[in-house]
Protein: Transcription termination/antitermination protein NusA
Amino acid sequence: MNMEFIEALHELEKERGISADILFEAIEAALISAYKKNFASLQNVRVHIDRMTGEFKVFARKNVVDEVEDSRTQVSLEEARKIDPNYAIDDVVEYEVTPREFGRIAAQTAKQVVVQRIREAERGMIYDEYINREGDIVTGVVQRYDQKNVIVDLGKVEAILTAQEQIPGETYQPFERIKTFVVEVKKTTKGPQVMLSRTHPGLIKRLFELEVPEIHDGLVEIKGVSREAGARSKIAVYSRDPNVDPVGACVGPKGSRVQTIVTELKGEKIDIVNFSTDPEEFVANALSPAKVVGVYPKPNEKVALVVVPDYQLSLAIGKEGQNARLAAKLTNWKIDIKSESQALAQNLIPEKNEELGEFEEYDEFADYAEYEEYEDYNEYEEYSEYDEEYEENAEYDETSYDENYDDELVYDENSEYEDFDNYEKEELPYEEGEEYEVTSGNAGSDKEDYTLAESESKEEKLTERDRAMMKYFDADEKNSRKEKKKKAKGKR
Structure:
């Protein structure tokens, strides 16, 4: 071995990222295997390589004993003290047995051992790297489809995105860069196996940590995440600093931060709500965007009755119960949602115990005991005396009542002409045979005053009221003619 060999080892260290000490240990192990195979030696052998010059030496190791049974592995105390007087029983004596050269077969064996050790070292380094990134987010490039699984290149290793961990309806194109969540890292004989996920709730959390500096700096804390991949997610955030709005920090200016995450998740909707230690407030916030009228929790059972307006009931439940499920996962409470009308009709709203500060169940029969003494009460007794007074003073004329009231109203088509008959019988303001003179006005005027004379026609003798009635009857007659024509056409 010479300096070229040492330089090659250092170059390999830079390319593969394997330390030189590991490479030297691998070559030493390869030389030991080659020595035993070439010389058919059963001795305990140690190989030492000088890190500076590259020279190697082989040493045979023997144990110091009183009586030698196997000369290949044991040495007597007397012979050991000839080498060094300080040796004692059970010490190890080393003899240099460096061969002049190795055979071709021994060199090939050494090469195989070196290559195998380098591979093992690489796998160990990759496993150590990704086992520390378990539960973290990584960016990879889609390589190919293996049946329903997607193979993603992470640089040093190819990871697997199984069909169960893919977002429903999402497709991946070759050489597309995607962000994934590291679920598990397994150590196998073929190297580390990295399992990825796109549906894990941790992916939402890590994406917000990347996009929101306040979360990375610790000003805003993510308290919980519930997710139905591909449809909707809910995230609860909290800030100890009253000057920092946690929801606004996650949304970003004009929604830029949350929109980046939505784009990465291919349009998945995200609800960001405020976290609260008060279960009533937290449950009400978790049902966002629905408005809540009241929350009535049972802390012992971790069950909460939520009352919402009637028009908000479908929004609070969500499509196929999605909003209610996500809120229950986020709060770890069982949520029962009722509308206002349902809660009032079923008497579900409990009464608050002021001493305990908790809500008690409402018993609809609890308040009925105080009314038991009124069971024999007749609500009509107080009005009986008025009935007697009414019977004594009741005097009325049955005949007059019958004349003024008709049970059935019968329409008389000739009734509307009664007034006209009265007008004919009405006395005229003048007598027949009376003559009226025509008087002329001033000389030169075109106007003349006319008075009625006996020779005038019957229409001129009628009053204005009579003329109006005549016009009404004419119009009625025309309408009746039109109706008759329509009926005649219909029969045809």
